Amino acid sequence: MKQVQKKGGNxxxxxxxxxxxxITLIMGYLINKYPRETIAIIFLYIMxxxxxxxxxxxxx
Length: 60
What we know:
The radius of gyration is 16 Å and the shape is flat. It has one domain (10-59). The protein is built from two helices and no strands. By secondary structure, it is mainly α.
């Protein structure tokens, strides 16, 4: 049986989880307010931003 070592990233995981929940709630609000094309652009921008943040933390 393999033992999984925690790297102390629990706070970061919680922050990312809350961030995802927040984005989901905001997207639900925006979908009701704006047309689909605008939502698609905002969603793509958020995805790129998350990728940049992920790459930054992987390098540390």
